[in-house]
UniProtKB/TrEMBL annotation:
The keyword Transferase applies. It comes from Janibacter alkaliphilus. Residues 128-255 form the N-acetyltransferase domain. InterPro entries: Acyl_CoA_acyltransferase, GNAT_dom. This is GNAT superfamily N-acetyltransferase. Pfam families: Acetyltransf_1.
Amino acid sequence: MDLVQAVTTKAELLRVTRDHPAVEFDQAAQVRALVLDDGPSWAAVAVKLTRTHGSTLDVVGSDTATAARLVSDPALARLLAEVRPDGVTVDRALAPDLLPRLGLEEGRAARWEWMITRTPPPPTRQDHRVVVLDEDRADELTTFIDAVSPRADARPFAWPGQEWVGVRADDGTLAAVGCRMPSVGDYPLLAGIATHPANRGQGLGAAVTAELTRRGLAEAGVCTLEMYSTNATARRIYRRLGYGETREWTSTAFA
């Protein structure tokens, strides 16, 4: 029997990937995926529709050899020709081998991390300054994000389910902001966390993250966030707030 199979539900994908958290928390209930389940070894590729990066092909696996078998299978070539995804996201440990097989260069890819917590964060010294920012502040938020964090995936109130919070400086202008929104899997995802350069080092980003995390945990018992791997300061803050489980990814666009 051909070991490479197509699956169409998250439940099937979770079974093959041994309950991989990226599948559980960041995939829709209905999926389009190919899997290879070979005893203790497994691999999966799944198409995901994102709000900001178009369609992506997510690749995970238990080991490089098994993932390479799946990526090299003719079934994937047929899927790529039919779906024509905009980009690919690969478990970073697999990227050096898999990206060339897909005709892509690792050197041009973005490296980022996906972090998970199920534990309430400790209090921060700036918690009392965090306020909710309603949709009538969308223009103000957009101006802030464009100036301070233009690479942020979260666009203020561009789609339903967003909740923004922030801290204002003494003059009333925004000093730090952040967003909680539903992931593709409909779990809490934090994004757009940014602090104005003039207000950094005061713990404002930590306070914003902590408040959004508490709200996410109250909703679903789990909260996730994404960060670029070059941001060591953010990583230290997130780990201090309880984001102890990390998955490292490499993403790049198809030509």
